[in-house]
Amino acid sequence: MTDPAIRVDHVSKRFRLYHERNQSLKASVMRGRRARYEEFWALDDVSFDVPVGSTFGLIGENGSGKSTMLKCMARILRPESGDITLRGKMSALLELGAGFHPELSGRENVYLNGAILGLSKKQLQSRFDEIVEFAGIEQFIDSPVKNYSSGMYVRLGFSVAINVDPDVLLIDEVLAVGDADFQRKCSEKIAEFRKQGKTIVIVSHSLPSVRTLCDEVALLEHGTLRDLGAAPAVIDHYLADAFSDRSDEGGHPRWGSGEVRIEAIEVVGVAGRTGVRPRTGEELVLRFHYRAREPVSDVMIGMAIETVEGVVVTGPNTRESGLRCDRLVGDGFVDFRVPRLMLLGGTYDVTAAVYSIDGLHPFDHVPHLLRFDVDQGEPLEENGLVSLGGTWEGEALRALEIRERAG
Amino acid sequence: MTALREYAANRELLLNLTLRELRSKYKKSVLGWTWSLLNPVASVVIYTVVFSVFLNIQPPRGDPSGLKSFVLFLLCALVPWNFVSSGLMASLDSIVGNANLIKKVYFPRELLVASTIGSLLVTFCIELGVVAVFLLVAGNMVLPWIPVVLFLMALLTVSLVGAGLVLSVTNVYFRDVKHFVNIAMQALFYSAPIVYPITVVPKHKEILGVDVPVREIYRLNPLVRFIEGFRDVLYNLRMPSIETLLYLVAWAGGLLVVGLWAFRKLEPRLAEEV
């Protein structure tokens, strides 16, 4: 087996949290020491390998230590214990255009930034045109960068960093910059990197992009390695943990002026039975319980059904059905009735909302108020999110025996 | 050894950072580079009026050059002093002022101090060049002494890098290092024979019944020796004593070693503390 591109070996990193940030000698003398601080381990004994040529994702919630890990890899922070060995030339895209001097021209900054990132003058000269063209700022290259728009600034920074031609590229969520055209260029450049067999480490919050970009993923939680493995497996695992039992929590994130609120959503079965599990092909009634603290008029009630990955499947509301809530007073409910549920088996989140009829004023908006499971039913389809209820027709088609259908 | 190789690999970066300092220094100023000459001119005028005209301090006659001019006497010491004071003050800010760079990119951080001193060295060279022209006009043939001047400049630069490394990194942890150095600078200025000849300092003095060799204690200050050295070579046109040169080599080496040691010791957490 070949050596990994990056070997993270029992790395721990400690930060000091100062209680008062008074960096004066007098304060220290009075206190008898420098400043009181608490220690906190941002990384605690983390080990993993990043294979050569792989695209590696670091995920985790805020404060999980993923950015700290990236900075340790970039040698900006030095771990308290443990080693990080990195083979080949490394370039880090932590903050684009870091080290640009505002008073200097774009041209001067390209040379300066390139030198900081480890390019020789000769290499820079041969790539200069390419860098400027990629950033798309040919006509401004000789004006001071302080006059650049933030987009131009970042584009030039990215362009220099990417042209360092590293063996290992470290990226910290910087790709969400620039216009669509520039983002496309960045994605292409990264795809090209992967094709050339270079190693990329990405820190990101965007799980969909990690899922599509990365081969392997490390999940960090409170500075420790929670999970490591192939991207889809780790991400699914993470999502399942992070979002379970949400409907039971009291403190929902919600917004709106609050005169009327959706208190709960209930899945109601045949004959008004509550707490049933919906099944594909059967009737589904979602009951929205509201409570109006003050009477409100001319409102609409709406909702959205999403998959746990955040794909919106549908988002109906009363106005689009040609209805309006004339006057809401006190407690009550409205039902959303689906005679034949076309959602396929799986887990879904329901977001509820009450808006003024023009859609401009939110009274209440509660994301993911209810999570419910749909069991497999009729039609017995497995792929995708919904059934269209279509039928197959043709001379050659014959009906299957029941037991064969399970397949 | 690896450290040395790292420095060699980063020569180009050092050059680039130095150029950045130089280029950005006088951007947006009408007179630009002229400022680096106007500053010493102003000091020379002020000191000459106060010390030569008002206080009537007599410059010693150059031995063996025979030159006698307060302005030139002053310039031979004031120009190196300017390098020292601007070097120390600028290196204080060289880490704190580049926080954004330190938090985002890796490179040997010592280079920030070295490039700061390096950019001031360029100013120092220009100023010394102008002084040399004045001296030549006044009849002091300084050209054969250039190698010695360069040697002294090298020693002074190394000393400043050493001191700058310590100051820059301690200033990250204690911001009042800067205020302290500001005050120390005034004392340092009068602690060396810049605006007055060294003969003003008594050789011996009896303090509380004890005979104190004041002049020898005074000359322990390496700045005094640097000023003596520059003045010997430029004003007097004579070789500084071997003892002085060796003393300065020892100081330069010592400062550099201490500077690197302190820097290395405090450097690992710079990105967090700055």
Description:
The complex is a heterodimer of chains A (407) and B (274). Chain A is α/β, with parallel strands linked by helices and 407 residues long. Chain A has 2 domains: 6-242, Rossmann fold (3-Layer(aba) Sandwich), CATH 3.40.50.300; 254-374, Distorted Sandwich (Coagulation Factor XIII, Chain A, domain 1), CATH 2.70.50.60. Helix content of chain A is 23%, strand content 34%. In chain A, the strands form 3 sheets. A 6-stranded mixed beta sheet of chain A has the order 5-6-7-3-8-9, sandwiched between helices. In chain A, a hairpin with a 5-residue loop joins strand 14 and strand 15 (362-374). In chain A, helix 3 (106-116) crosses helix 4, helix 3 crosses helix 5 and helix 4 (121-135) crosses helix 5. Chain B is mainly α. Chain B has one domain. Chain B is built from 12 helices and 2 strands. Chain B has helices at residues 2-9, 11-25, 35-54, 70-96, 99-104, 110-137, 146-173, 177-190, 214-218, 222-236, 242-266, 270-273, and strands spanning 205-207, 210-212. Chain B has a two-stranded antiparallel sheet with strand order 1-2. In chain B, a hairpin with a 2-residue loop joins strand 1 and strand 2 (210-212). In chain B, helix 4 runs antiparallel to helix 6, helix 4 (70-96) runs parallel beside helix 7 (146-173) and helix 4 runs antiparallel to helix 8. The longest helix of chain B has 28 residues, at 110-137.
Task: Give a concise summary.
The complex is a heterodimer of chains A (407) and B (274). By secondary structure, chain A is an alpha/beta fold. Chain A has nine helices and 15 strands.
